[in-house]
Design goal:
alpha/beta, 11 helices, 6 strands
Length: 308
């Protein structure tokens, strides 16, 4: 009798959790990545931690578990199950909770103050579905200077990393005070390093051309006025941003510079910047209506396939 009661309860619990995953995906059909569980390997490749330290067994907050090493495709960004194939194992863990059976600690990586599951994804999923606040975990910590706030999407976590990179860039170069420009903003990581390399390249070019040394403060001013602003003006004059509403002008600056360099390597140094901007816009622009239609169709098809 006891087993049948638990079987009914666990079946109901799983169906409720899976329905939440479906509703979550429908809410984010235009941007499905926002409903995806964060991949540990993606964050690791962005932060590039230096050392691993074995911490051992600790009790950690459930709300700081934000991703997975290997099962990030099986659960959504709140660890609700995305597939009926997870049913039996999920119910088995859920039943253990009803019977007050103590399960082994999960295994996690700690990175930036947050946790990513190595082993125990179903246990985390059941715990989150039940509203449990803490769980025992065996921890391996990866050392990073960046400390992250709990986030349910890779996008929000990347935004946090970009904010850190901007603070470092502006502090170390004094860029804002030199240019009085505080909105050098990006939507992807690693771009401030590219900007700094552009400044150094411009500095070397000017020094060679004028046969003189150039202070880094003067190089920043010169690059900003003679390289960055003219390209931004070209972007504005061509109304390019209407095709890239989810990005910034600084994003476009980096992409166009790379694209222009590719064109000049392929067709020669005579390729004009305006031609590069027009070509870039034609080749990289995205049709928003097509994204909506494709997003809706993808979700309907996927859940028809998954539904038992």
């Amino acid at each position: 009798m006891k087993a049948s009661i638990f079987a009914l309860q666990t079946e109901e619990d799983f169906n409720r959790a899976r329905s939440k995953a479906l509703f979550n995906e429908i809410q984010h059909f235009l941007n499905p990545e926002e409903a995806s569980l964060i991949s540990f390997s993606e964050i690791k490749s962005i932060l590039k931690p230096k050392d691993e330290i074995y911490i051992g067994l600790k009790t950690i907050p459930i709300d700081k578990i934000v991703g997975s090493e290997g099962r990030y495709k099986d659960f959504d960004n709140r660890f609700f199950p995305k597939s009926g194939f997870l049913r039996e194992r999920w119910k088995h863990v859920d039943e253990a909770q009803y019977e007050s059976i103590i399960l082994p600690p999960i295994k996690v990586y700690e990175l930036g103050g947050l946790y990513f599951v190595r082993d125990g994804n179903h246990r985390v999923s059941v715990a989150k579905a039940r509203g449990i606040e803490f769980i025992d975990a065996e921890i391996v910590s990866l050392q990073s200077e960046i400390k992250l706030k709990p986030a349910y999407t890779l996008k929000s976590m990347i935004k946090e990393i970009i904010s850190y990179e901007k603070r470092v860039f502006y502090t170390e170069t004094n860029f804002g005070d030199i240019t009085d420009f505080w909105t050098l903003d990006f939507t992807s990581t690693g771009q401030y390093d590219i900007i700094y390399n552009h400044i150094l390249t411009h500095k070397a070019y000017v020094e060679k051309k004028e046969n003189t040394d150039m202070a880094i403060t003067d190089a920043i001013t010169s690059w900003f006025n003679e390289v960055y602003l003219p390209i931004i003006k070209t972007i504005d004059d061509g109304h390019v941003m209407r095709y890239f509403r989810a990005h910034t002008k600084s994003d476009l600056y980096v992409w166009i510079m790379l694209y222009w360099e590719e064109l000049r390597k392929k067709f020669g140094e005579d390729v004009e910047l305006n031609d590069a901007v027009r070509s870039f816009t034609r080749s990289k622009g995205i049709n928003f209506v097509s994204r909506i239609k494709n997003g809706i169709g993808r979700i309907i098809f996927k859940w028809k396939i998954k539904s038992p």
